Amino acid sequence: MAAIEKNNPNRKLYKHLTVPGAAGCFYCRSIHSVTEGPFYYCRMCPLFGGFVTMQEGKEAASCTYWDVPGNENVLPPEEMRKRIAAQIAAEEAKEFPDYLPEDADDDAKLCERAIQFAADAHKGDFRKGNHLPYIIHPMEVMMLAAQMTSDADVIAAGALHDVVEDTPYTVEDIRHRFGERIASLVDMESEDKRPDRPKSETWRIRKEESLLHDKDAPIEAKYIMLADKLSNMRATLRDFEKDGHNIWQKFNMKDEAQQEWYYRTVAEVLKELENEPLYREYLDILKKIFG
């Protein structure tokens, strides 16, 4: 890892190589987890610096971020995770690290601050049915939103879109930290979860409410909605290719017909975005999963 000092001499700019371990797993700093398979989440990460070729023909993802110094050598994935976990526990490092240069513009700094806040808010939460930290989803939504718009408020709201719905933070908390416009966009993407009732019992009414609300939402909210649903559908497709129709058993709504109704209705609500490549990708995944 190469290191360049920043203002604080205890923090350096690291170029981290996500070298796979013996089991094919690798450490990803953005989600602070050891994962496996291709570098999918690295490619959807703001830390990602592209692929580098390693010796013996192997490839490793390269990412750059500010962190506290540690072992300057390339460590095995699990050792890297343990080292960073200890630094986070000691409050020497952040859950999601700084990754921008000091001279970055205000819009970029806003988006960095949003994903850092989301990482802290969702800490300890995981995606349905697997061991991957939840932050991979807001991270991907943020990056997908950035493919459709350069509006920093929309991109930041993409990172924050599940904070109110799934963590103890409120819309007022978002408003206090990020302003009225971002808070409003996050609020538009937040379902009333009805925590006093079983999620499977309220699933249909919650989806109907959100679809009715989103139908007349501004284009900025629809960018976030498309990014959110496409991220979910990408994950569903990866599971579907492995496990087939059994994948629905891990969801609150286990009826595949209901899931199909929802995701096809989402496509109708988002038809305003039909010229976006991400919308066409969404339709393609619908065909692959539901026929």
Largest sheet: 4 strands, antiparallel
Strand/helix succession: EEEEHEEHHHHHHHHHHH
Number of helices: 12
| Number of separate strands | 6
Shape summary: globular
* Low-confidence region ranges: 1-6
**How would you write the strand order of the largest sheet?**
1-2-6-5
Mean pLDDT: 87
| Span between termini | 47 Å
The level of helicity is: 40-55%
Polypeptide structure, described:
The protein has 291 residues and is of the alpha+beta class. Helix content is 50%, strand content 11%. The chain has twelve helices and six strands. The protein has helices spanning 40-43, 77-89, 106-121, 136-148, 152-160, 163-166, 171-178, 180-188, 199-215, 219-243, 256-269, 277-290; strands at residues 3-5, 12-18, 25-28, 33-36, 48-53, 59-67. Strands 1-2-6-5 form a four-stranded antiparallel beta sheet, with no helix packed on it. Strands 3-4 form a two-stranded antiparallel ribbon. A hairpin with a 6-residue loop joins strand 1 and strand 2. The N and C termini lie far apart (47 Å). Mean pLDDT is 87; it is low at 1-6.
Question: In a few lines, what is going on in this structure?
Answer:
This protein is about 50% helix and about 10% strand. With about 290 residues, the protein is α+β, with helices and mostly antiparallel strands.
What's the SSE blueprint?
Layout: E1 3-5, E2 12-18, E3 25-28, E4 33-36, H1 40-43, E5 48-53, E6 59-67, H2 77-89, H3 106-121, H4 136-148, H5 152-160, H6 163-166, H7 171-178, H8 180-188, H9 199-215, H10 219-243, H11 256-269, H12 277-290
Antiparallel strand pairs: 1-2, 2-6, 3-4, 5-6
